[in-house]
Amino acid sequence: MALPASGTISLDQIHVEAGGTSGTTCTMEDADIRDIGDFPANTASSRYTRHFSDWYGKKAKWIITMTTGQTTVNTAGSDYVAANTERYRGYNGSSGTRPSGTTYGSLNDYQDADYLNNKKILSL
What is the residue-wise DSSP string for the chain? Predict the structure, then answer.
């Protein structure tokens, strides 16, 4: 869930959004916390001052790993239509998308409440 867009925000909230455990030690210089705010590594505090407000509305990155699969659909010909072969590559995790009833490939995470209005990725 995204961090608050205004008001009070704590380092613990930022840490939890970054995937850390509430109440554990962290700093604004931790890589996962910098990543949410899109801050570069190794920036001295004297050159770049961070404020808690810099994290307003930020959310952890959604990282998806996909393996592609494939399937082939052969359509028989008829008197006026030639036989046809269709090949599909990518990810199809739903039996309701084309080709119907066929799943192929894999996706480690197909839904995130902070992205795509919580819609599921069914195929790519």
Answer: -PPPSSS---HHHHHHHTTPPTTS---TTSHHHHHHHTPPSS--TTTS---GGGGTT--------EE-EEEEEEE---SSS--EEEEEEE-B--TTSSSTT--BSEES----TTSGGG----B-
Strands 106-107 and 84-90: unpaired
Distances (CA, A) of 105 to 39, 53, 97, 98, 123: 34, 41, 14, 14, 9
**Cβ-proximal residues to 92 (8 Å cutoff; 6+ apart), any chain:** 69, 71, 98, 99, 102, 103, 104, 105, 122, 123
Mind listing the pLDDT tens digit for each residue in 23-71? 999 988 888 888 888 777 765 554 456 778 888 888 888 888 889 888 8
Is this prediction's pTM over 0.70? Answer: no
